[in-house]
What does this fold into?
Amino acid sequence: MQWKSRYSSAVVLGVIAWTLLVALPGAWWPPDKFSAWATGLSAIAVVLALALAVAALRTDVKDRQVDRTLSLHSELTSGEINDARLRLVDHLRKHGPTGPSGRRLPRRTTADELRSGHGLGTYGPNSKDNPKDDRSKILRFFERARLVRDAGSADDPLFVELIGRHASWWNCVLVRDSSRPPRRALMHLGLWCDAFADKHKHDYPYLAEWGKTRTDDFGSTTPWQNDPP
It folds into this structure.
């Protein structure tokens, strides 16, 4: 019923405006004066229409950016990407060190370790999945996410909150390995998100504790200091 109330209010305002701006002047003013008045009103109406069109276009672009960001987040947190992410996180914690609180911390790992087919490179003889393929799925996702952001198709604050936290975390745990494009995409995306969060930490309350998970897991919010250049 709320939309009906707003519609009724808009109709009433429209009638009042028409009466004050058109009906009364047309009834009391001479034709030449009213013609000049009507011409001015037409020009104002055109400007207002253009302004409303621009505002509507900006709103539509914003809505599309939000929808695309939410779609990326859904892809990351459901389906095969989510399965790969959870498997690899559990695997790296299983092989990682024990923190001061007794919690298992994720092990920072190289691509070669996950390709080895034994030790860190396998989930076990009965698993049809393997860490190497899961790593590739995760990196390919962040490669696509970076392209979406670079194209201006994502809402930046929402993107950093929903996607950027994951990108920065994986940028710490998956150590750089020469020049493979998906890994470079993750690195650039994670660093961009860190810079955005640092610049806008006072603008968005949810950025106040940016990097806390990485500090808890790695003792730092930055990628491994011993990464190759």
Observations:
- Residues 65-218 form one domain.
- The longest helix spans residues 31-76.
- Confidence is low (pLDDT under 50) at residues 225-229.
- DSSP finds eight helices and no strands in the chain.
